[in-house]
Write a structure and sequence with these properties.
11 strands, TIM Barrel, elongated, single chain, 7-stranded parallel β-sheet, two-stranded antiparallel sheet
């Protein structure tokens, strides 16, 4: 019996040792699995963060691509429009020269330099300078609007701001300052969204009325001049309405629209050198009796702000040339013919 008990006891011990080993292995396995799970969770979190970061970058790049495409389209439209306007106005050079000779024959005094003398703003009708130049600034207000206003004030120059529908106190203050400083306030659409704006006459009219009302509430000015986003000669593929019909609608509302015959080139996606902007804005002024220069109010156009004083100084130094804001008396510069022949 004693030997049997000893044998049983030995078997039990072996079983206990085996069970102990199994338990230890199970514990080790559980610990390793827990550790691997922790590592996997950490890596998954990092992977998720990486994916989120890459997704954000892709979205940002997509936006940039869309902006680049839109700006490229605008640049093509401006170049096409400028080409059409050059062709349209080429025949006016001889007329301008003849008008200048007639004025000299009559002994009229030609004024040069700024359109502001002794603090009194001169209208287009009062100024007899042969070349009238209108600085027009689109897309504001922005964070650099005040800088532009400061430069204009420094040189005693009045310009024309074609603004878009930007809300907020800073934007409102800039709009008020534009008016208080004696500049001309014009509309450039509320949304600047080609697809929505040019979907129909109704959508255009709704946008126009909303912006006109907003600008009146902020500044007390009822705007009566307009610039089409992309110009009246735009070739926007999503446009579903004829620009001539929109021009006629504006006319029915007592609103005149202005395009341009000189472009600074700062509407492109590329930031142009100061020298290029100055050359673009000043080289062809002598070709026109009325020069409407297109520029943009945007913090992304850093060289535009730097070029503005030089542009003004060169124009002020030109013979028989004056810088004015757009008024009711300003000769229209338009890329398209929209009026009926009988008119």
């Amino acid at each position: 019996m004693a030997e049997g008990n000893k044998q049983i006891t030995g078997k039990q011990k072996r079983r206990w040792r085996l069970r102990r080993c199994n338990v230890q292995m199970l514990v080790i396995t559980i610990v390793m699995l827990a550790l691997l799970s922790s590592i996997l969770i950490v890596r998954m979190q990092k992977l998720n963060e990486t994916i989120a970061h890459l997704t954000a970058q892709v979205e940002m790049l997509s936006r940039l691509v869309e902006e680049e495409r839109a700006q490229a389209a605008n640049l093509r439209e401006e170049l096409q429009a400028a080409g059409r306007q050059d062709s349209f106005t080429a025949g006016k050079e001889s007329e301008g020269q003849q008008a200048a000779q007639d004025q000299e024959t009559k002994g009229e005094v030609q004024q040069t330099g700024q359109g502001i003398k002794d603090g009194v703003q001169q209208t287009a009708a009062q100024v007899t300078a042969m070349h009238k130049v209108y600085l027009t600034i689109d897309d504001g207000p922005s964070s650099v609007t005040q800088d532009i206003l400061d430069i204009l004030k420094q040189y005693g120059i009045k310009a024309t701001f074609f603004v878009v529908g930007k809300d907020g106190e800073t934007a409102k203050e800039s709009l008020k300052q534009i008016v208080e400083d004696g500049h001309t306030l014009g509309m450039h659409s509320g949304t600047h969204n080609y697809t929505e704006l040019y979907a129909s006459i109704e959508s255009f009219a709704e946008d126009l009325e909303a912006q006109r009302k907003y600008l009146y509430e902020v500044t007390g000015v009822t705007c009566d001049i307009y610039r089409f986003p992309g110009g009246s000669s735009n070739t926007v593929k999503t446009r579903a309405v004829d620009m001539a019909d929109l021009a006629k609608y504006l006319d029915s509302q007592g609103i005149r629209f202005f395009d341009w015959n000189i472009s600074s080139g700062d509407g492109s996606s590329v930031v142009l050198p100061v020298e290029t902007l100055v050359e673009n804005c000043t080289a062809n002024i002598s070709k026109y009796e009325t020069s409407v220069i297109l520029m943009h109010d945007s913090p992304l156009k850093s060289t535009t702000l730097e070029a503005l004083p030089k542009i003004i100084e060169i124009i002020q130094g030109m013979e028989d040339t004056v810088i004015l804001p757009i008024t009711d008396e300003t000769e229209l510069v338009q890329h398209i013919k929209w009026q009926d022949e009988e008119q």
